[in-house]
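P.,

For your records, the input lines for the assembly:
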Amino acid sequence: MNKPKVAFYWCASCGGCEETVVDLNEDILKVVEAIDIVFWPVAMDFKREDVAKMADGEIAVCFLNGAIRTNEQLEMAEMLRKKAKVMIAFGSCSHLGGIPGLANLFTRQQILDNSYLEAVSVINQERVYPQEITKVPEGKVTLPALFETVKTLNQVVDVDYYLPGCPPPTNLIMNAVTAILEGKLPPKGAILAPDMALCNECARKDSKPEKPMIKEYFRPHQIKADPEKCLLAQGLVCLGPGTRSGCGAACVTGNMPCTGCLGPTDQVKDYGAKVMSAIASLADANDEAEIAKIMDGIPDPVGTFYRYSLPASLLHRKYLGQAKGGIQK
Amino acid sequence: MSDKSFEPRIVAFFCNWCTYTGADLAGTSRMTYAPNARIIRVMCSGRLDPQFIMAAFREGADGVLIGGCHPGDCHYQEGNYKALRRYTLLKRMLDDLGIEEQRLRLEWISASEGDRVQKVMNEMAEAVRNLGPLRLEPMHLEEHAAHQEGVK
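Structure tokens returned:
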């Protein structure tokens, strides 16, 4: 019997998703035994043409991590979609946009200006910017074009399943691989993680008060958190109540609040709005000025609540106003 | 940017016990006010999930108005306080996301304040009319196509 062909690819991501495959430890041997890796640029020597030569649907499963923000990434996503029977969005970036998705708070021009002109470590007196096309004596060389807006994978191609997390927890990856090999995948569109909030599997759940009321919100560096008690009850913005479980509350175990990388449960459309609602309603004040003062403890609400999901949110990005690109910094 | 021919679409979430009844009073009292708002009755301003507001903007609302009972008057004791806490943080979030602050407004209007419904509806319509339409970027593939054309 032929082993199922599997492809791994990365788009706008940090490489952590590739690392987590190695984190499978000994289990990776079982995986490699059962499958045939036909494309994995970060680890093995395959080229774009190798994929281009394949027949449509020849790849059994493609795991694609990273958000889509250049035309090269879009092209690869589209090609892999055609060649693969099952497309799995792997990790927060391809699932919800991830950290690169926070680029949607800026315009393309602001990002280029910052990276090539304004950053303190940059000296660029000739104001040279990367060009999509450069003419050289030998001909024309091109670079991928950067999009104005970072997209999730399912905003550009059809996605069959999602493996959430930054990076996806290894137990979820193994469950998914096992389900694929046994042909026991759930209905299309499923997120391959439990549909329960993180508090449900948190070791500190018994110390969570019925109704934690918060007088002051803290950021992790501002207090010394009790390693046993519910972090939310201590005033840390822990997004566990609105975040999907499946990671075993790994961050909380390390005494850090949940930042929401697994995204929402099935019922929620806009993760940031929903989890903001959960956190905001815990403020222990009824007076307008007092509430505003408590909320000042959350200096960057978009970065806090949409940390991994701005492109997947209902607004997708910062509104540029009617004169597109005419926003101030 | 003011466009006089533009009529804003406003989604108004009114609580059943105070503001919605106040709007009824405005109607039965034959008060006229700007017809721009589509009123959605909710049992309590505390029922208002911030997702509803985001969805309204996404689906084409130019402004969102929330009406609830005055502090201390909530039929469910503290629903309006919860609404206020969420609204306070949501306002800051929308500001960071580039949505002008006049596009979202929270008002406490009791069942006897028909005149206040009239005043707030008129003010909101005027403020959003002056801002112009909210045109959120669609998430279609055309943009990619345009970029690709540029490289070929």
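Two observations worth noting. The first strand of chain A starts at residue 5 and ends at 10. Chain A is about 25% helix and 15% strand.

Regards
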